[in-house]
Amino acid sequence: MANYNGASHLLSAIRSVLAQSMSSLELLIADDASTDRSIEIVETIAKTDPRVRLLKSTVNSGPAAARNRALAAAQGQWIAVVDSDDLIHPQRFERLVALAESEAADGCADDLIYFHESGTAQEPPTLLGDVAPGSATLITPAMMLGGTQDGLGSADLGYLKPLIRRDRIGNSRYREDIRIGEDHEFYLRLLLDGARMILTPQSYYLYRRHAASISHRLRPEDIDAMIRVQEDLAPRFGPVEKARARLRRAALLRSKQYETCVQDIKNRRALPAAARAIRHPHVVLGLARIARARLVSTTAPVQPQNLADVHLAPLGTQAAPETLLIELPEREADWVAADWSKVSTATQTDGVHVRADGPLAQFAMGYVCVSAQTPAMERKSIPLPAPDNPLVQVRTPTYRRPDALRRCLESLVEQSHENWICDVYDDDPNGSAKEIVDGFGDPRIHFNHNRPQRFASRNIDSCFSRANPREADFFCVVEDDNYLLPDFMEENIAVCRDKGVEIIFRNQLIEHGSGTNHAQLSENGILDDKLNEGLYDADVFRLCLIADIGVSNGGLFWSRHAKSDLEIHEACSATLQEYLRTFSINEPMYVAMKPLAVWAENGEDTTRDIGMNTGYLARELSLKRSITQLQKLAWTRANQADRARFLNHPAFRYSADMRARGLVKSHIDLRAGQVLGWRETLRLALRGGLIRLLGRPERGLAPFLAARQG
To answer: Which ranges carry the Glycosyltransferase 2-like domain (predicted)?
Structure first.
């Protein structure tokens, strides 16, 4: 963040950076010899937040030199530029880094949403306006030079504020011999060097437009410098870039004529101004546009709204009196930058209070703009979802079990933690679950009809997707025949925070005879005789596989910051999925032994593998063969010390006999049979041999292991 005498907006800009959901960051503020309160503001914040570092200068050298000082001091993997008078959405860094990594890009840029400290509306409301790409687009050097061939019209991509990998920047620096346009030249040079940069039509950057902005004070000599640096890069241009460069140079020369004429008028040099206007008709058109805009603002000033409240709410909400209602879409992806700008435009004026209903409204709060002109507004930072009230997304796969689904959803309604949202994924081609969902009349419960039919194993697996369209903080999967006890969410959130973990494996009770008149809950949890409460290293926990134990889908609770990809992505049975999911966890996991969920033991009535045509015996052999292969891999991944004490490892509660049986049956270590006796050892070894001989691993196992071990 380069800064020169930006005290009036600096605090708001700093707060918006420090409020990022990706909190592992450093904020380098390169002050360019400010004479206002800027230094005092930064030093005060740095005393309470060690992420803030002040880089002082005794000489005013311009924004390029200030940014270069920050680049030299930066230690992060990604570099972001945020101007000291702008604001950014709380999730900006997280979103752009995720997109860049998914596209294997060196950088990622978003559109800019304009806002004005006077509260006037912007036209267009964003940098890209109507020519924003429909999806993520690769930025080329030719696009950076401008033109309409790429569908971006006259949008100046030099204004973008991309996140760029520090390794890609390397020793590259901004040119310090230009005062305006240094960003454009820097980005263009990186692209010519081979950088791969992505542009998304979304926007998480709020660009303040005001009279003091340096980009509003273009001088003829600045334009000469912009032409000069472009010509310095010309030898590296290809034919397309050369053609675009000629058009850009002509446009810059026209701008120079206009700015020179404006200077003549300001300096009351009427004859030179008139002569220039006669020689260059475009200058007259430019002056006419400025005159018209000023006339409109003088004769029809913007009247302050009487509306003191802005209400962000789902579609169909009724507007309250004297309240501006902004109806939000069902999904975040349905809106792009120009849509979100409605929120920014509506919240630019002093005294506006914003009400947000629902998780998407909380996300929309990141687009709220507040003026820093008065102390009252200066204290208002961008509102964030309350940290003590995180959003939990429940994902419920279902197939033609209306009574079970109703009970499952009732257990959500009874949760002590009320900030949750449930997506029900119905695999019935007839969509029978919709009637159940509609019957609750709860806006937190959403019906999703699978088309085409996924069948149960895929339907369950997709519920573990890393996609987060609801912008949730935590996740869990509750299959339609299972249910939660009232404190499930509240206590799991508390464990995540208290223990500093991102994944929890929660103990569950068993409902015997589920779906019958004699259904009964077990007295003990399924983990009571198997595991101990506490933190498990991933390699140690995988050793549970040797005793035929895997994580239960309904026992998992994870945060948006979990590194493990819990979705299997490959075709396999739902039962094998749980073993593969155990293998997928690659970070510490906390085992919580208090049972707060119920697993339904429904025997042959289960529809978990509906859609699989293989016979029962072949399925079982295939499953057992797959598990054996996983057991051996889990054993080889564990360190020597954990393998040596496996039979008596304190992390596990299941008996030494049970551990030994797993080692013998999987042919990992037949010597473990000493604790079992020779008859039992022989029986298990033969059984394991038959499984290896007759069973074929499920077809999804090999590609899964290839992806996870790579």
So the answer is: 2-117, 396-503
The CATH number of whichever domain residue 88 belongs to comes to 3.90.550.10
Residue 243 CB partners (closer than 8 Å, separation 6+): none
Tell me: do 571 and 704 sit in the same domain.
Answer: no
Model pLDDT, residue 147 = 58
Q: What is the mean pLDDT of residues 427-453?
A: 92
Strand pairing category for 197-209 and 137-139: antiparallel
Give the 3-state secondary structure of residue 680. helix
The amino acid occupying position 599 is W
Mean pLDDT, residues 616-628 taken together = 85
In whole angstroms, give the CA distance from residue 158 to residue 190.
12
State the residue range of the domain holding 700: 617-709
User: For 199-208, 385-394, 436-445, which range has the lowest pLDDT when averaged over its residues?
Assistant: 385-394
pLDDT over 60 (residue 349): yes
Based on the fold, state whether residues 93 and 29 are members of the same structural domain: yes
Dig out the tokens for 33 from the structure. 């010899």
Give the closest residue to 584 by CA, choosing from 557, 624, 546, 551: 551
Cβ(700)–Cβ(575) under 8 Å?
A: no
Q: What percent of the chain has pLDDT over 70?
A: 87
| Position 290 pLDDT exceeds 70 | no
Say if residue 681's pLDDT is above 50. yes
CA dist 340 and 128 (Å) reads: 14
> Quick one: 592 and 659 in the same domain?
no
> Does a structural domain hold residue 230?
no
Domain boundary among 182, 217, 252: 217
Amino acid at 350: D
Q: Which of 614, 636, 653 is the last residue of a domain?
A: 614
